[in-house]
């Protein structure tokens, strides 16, 4: 990554948090996808929101710009995902959705917002369309020590003969 260069940080308005970041690192700040495309990036890392994916990813891909989508939940929308996949294929642009740690950051953020109680992790989920809330729910998971669980299962199996 020695040759990597940040060509711009994009935001929605002059009030965007990215503007201060751009100023701090002496990187151009642009508003909107067209200005971002004019900066001629090879890759855009989306780290904003599901809405940003819906509004900008297709235009970037259609201009041959690779897009790394960190708000991967946006791609649960089958129509959006299909459009992005078509644009990526047609314009030979990479559409990449990292797994693992990045998704874990979203889960950690959700867990912190909802709560962790011992081995129980509670996630709050919200679905929105633009500014309109569509649904809200709570989901619980339990943290399991797989090794301990295996040992207990083997012990019970041995006791049963």
How does this model look, in words?
The protein is of the alpha/beta class and 161 residues long. The chain folds into 2 domains: 9-96, NAD(P)-binding Rossmann-like Domain (Rossmann fold); 101-160, no CATH class. 43% of the residues lie in helices and 25% in strands. It contains 6 helices and 8 strands; from the N terminus they run βαβαβαβαβαβββα. The chain has helices at 17-24, 33-38, 50-62, 78-90, 101-114, 146-160, and strands spanning 9-11, 29-31, 43-46, 66-69, 95-96, 115-117, 120-129, 132-142. The protein has a 3-stranded parallel sheet. A 3-stranded antiparallel sheet has the order 6-7-8. A hairpin with a 2-residue loop joins strand 7 (120-129) and strand 8 (132-142). The termini are far apart. 15% of the residues are buried.
Number of strands: 8
The profile of the biggest β sheet is: 3 strands, parallel
Strand content: 15-25%
Measured as a percent range, the helix fraction is 40-55%
Overview in brief:
This protein is of the alpha/beta class and 161 residues long. 43% of the residues lie in helices and 25% in strands. The mean pLDDT is 82.
Topology of this protein?
Elements: E1 9-11, H1 17-24, E2 29-31, H2 33-38, E3 43-46, H3 50-62, E4 66-69, H4 78-90, E5 95-96, H5 101-114, E6 115-117, E7 120-129, E8 132-142, H6 146-160
Parallel strand pairs: 1-2, 3-4, 4-5
Antiparallel strand pairs: 6-7, 7-8
Which keywords apply here?
43% helix, three-stranded antiparallel sheet, alpha/beta, 6 helices, Rossmann fold, 161 residues, elongated, three-stranded parallel sheet
């Amino acid at each position: 990554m020695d040759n990597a260069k940040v060509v711009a940080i994009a935001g929605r308005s002059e009030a965007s948090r990215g503007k201060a970041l751009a100023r701090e690192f002496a990187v151009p700040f642009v508003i909107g996808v067209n200005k971002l495309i004019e900066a001629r990036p090879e890759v855009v890392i989306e780290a904003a929101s599901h809405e940003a994916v819906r509004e900008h990813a297709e235009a970037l891909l259609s201009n041959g710009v690779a897009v790394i989508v960190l708000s991967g939940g946006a791609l649960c929308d089958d129509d959006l995902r299909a459009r992005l996949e078509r644009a990526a294929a047609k314009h030979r642009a990479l559409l990449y959705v990292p797994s693992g740690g990045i998704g874990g950051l979203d889960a950690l953020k959700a867990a912190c917002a909802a709560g962790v109680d011992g081995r129980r992790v509670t996630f709050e989920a919200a679905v929105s369309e633009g500014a309109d809330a569509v649904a809200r729910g709570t989901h619980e998971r339990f943290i399991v020590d797989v090794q301990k669980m295996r040992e207990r299962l083997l012990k019970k199996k041995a006791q049963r003969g």
